[in-house]
Write a structure and sequence with these properties.
This protein is mainly alpha-helical. Helix content is 32%, strand content 5%. It has helices spanning 2-12, 36-40, 48-73, 138-147, and strands spanning 82-85, 117-120. A two-stranded antiparallel ribbon has the order 1-2. The relative contact order is 0.11.
């Protein structure tokens, strides 16, 4: 449903105007449920909860693939900044895994907060960064990519609190 709505918004957009979309998928969050098609892709996995979770991750992959294909079809992909990250590690109590890291969501271990992330911006970012990156790095990085705001000794700071 989220993907369909996002695609609809892209199709309605006037490509000559700036556009911002925050797409926060709920695919890999409780309750663990997924269309049967995705669960059946993992029929070889004995644990039913794990099968469902794996299907949820695959459904997310398909969702992101559908969005990027639509951006490409509309001629917007090369001028789009895509930032992809997770809010935290997988929920080990709900069949998520964070191997080789210990722990998961709601723990202080690395598996609970150290996640993969990437930014794709073909016409904007011209460098590759493979070191540690923290949530506070998103704002200056995206401002630099979108607006050319320099990232250096003067940092733009934002504090977000979630309770």
């Amino acid at each position: 449903t989220f993907t369909e709505r996002a695609i609809s918004l892209l199709e309605q957009h006037n490509n000559s105007e700036p556009f911002f979309m925050y797409f926060s998928s709920q695919n890999c969050h409780a309750p663990n449920q997924v269309p049967e098609y995705y669960e059946n892709l993992y029929a070889h996995v004995k644990d039913a909860d794990r099968r469902t979770y794996l299907g949820m991750v695959t459904a997310l992959d398909d969702s992101i693939g559908n969005l990027t294909r639509k951006l490409d079809e509309l001629g917007m992909l090369e001028d789009t900044i895509i930032a992809f990250t997770s809010d935290n590690g997988g929920a080990t109590y709900a069949s998520g895994r964070n191997f080789p890291l210990r722990g998961g969501k709601m723990t202080a271990f690395e598996g609970g907060h150290r996640v993969r992330a990437f930014i794709n911006a073909p016409n904007t970012l011209t460098y590759e960064y493979n070191d540690m990156f923290h949530a506070v790095d998103w704002l200056p990085t995206l401002l630099n990519a979108a607006l050319g705001v320099p990232v250096g000794k003067k940092y733009i700071c934002a504090i977000f609190s979630f309770f």
